[in-house]
Amino acid sequence: MITAFLVAFGTVFLAELPDKTMVASLVLTTRFHRPFAVWVGVSAAFVMHVVLAVSLGSLLRHLPVTPVRCAVAVLFLVGGIIMLRTKHEDQEDGGPDAAGVSFRKVALTAASVVGLAEFGDLTQLATAGIATRYSAPVAVALGAWCALVTVAALAVTAGRWIVQHVPLKIVQRVAGIVFIAFGVASAVSAFA
Q: Could you list the residue ranges that cross the membrane (predicted)?
């Protein structure tokens, strides 16, 4: 049981570090200035994905990859365009985007963005594969989820630091470009 947990944690942690979800968590934190709300939303999305991956195991590998990747591509392209088109006013206090947004709305936004982006992702497939290898679904689920929320915690912590040291205008432009790059990469991978 401990082996299944450690294998799931190690594999998913390393796969998730350079992943788009870490960037999405960081961007959501810089946008809303509510790191804990972003982390809660992202963590909730991860619960759904880990439970789905472990429950479905190898069946998940037979889902049509192309439509999922196309949906992810559209999401990131739209997100990137929105980030690039957002007015960039110097906002020391978080500005209108962050000031009136409730904890619940930020958490739901984070859960939705990450929930859709993670569907069919490498870490979900890896979790399904690990679940089919070990007969310890709870240990695999806990290991994968702990790895995912650890990476999300790193992302929102980095996001908080970046907001304090880098102008929001630069963060949003870089994020927009990164989101568009992920969208293009997802679109290309959908048809590769």
A: 38-60, 67-84, 142-163, 170-191
Q: In the numeric block, which tokens belong to residue 145?
A: 């989820």
Q: Check: CB of residue 172 under 8 Å from CB of residue 90.
A: no
Angle at 14 between CA 8 and CA 18, to 5 degrees: 140
Residues 80-135: pLDDT tens digits? 787 677 665 444 444 445 556 789 999 999 998 888 887 777 778 788 878 877 87
Residue 13 CB contacts under 8 Å (≥ 6 apart), including other chains? 147, 150, 151
Q: Cα torsion at 20, 23, 25, 29 (round to 10°)? A: -160
Residues in the chain: 192
Residue type, 82: I
Closest Cα to residue 82, out of 167, 181, 177, 159?
Answer: 177
Q: Based on the structure, what is the number of domains in the chain?
A: 1
Containing structural domain, residue 121:
2-11+20-190
pTM of the model: 0.68
Q: State how far Cα 134 lies from the chain centre.
A: 26
Distances (CA, A) of 30 to 33, 115, 161, 169, 182: 5, 19, 9, 11, 18
* Amino acid letter, residue 186: S
Q: 132, 82, 104, 95: which is closest to 38 by C-alpha? A: 104
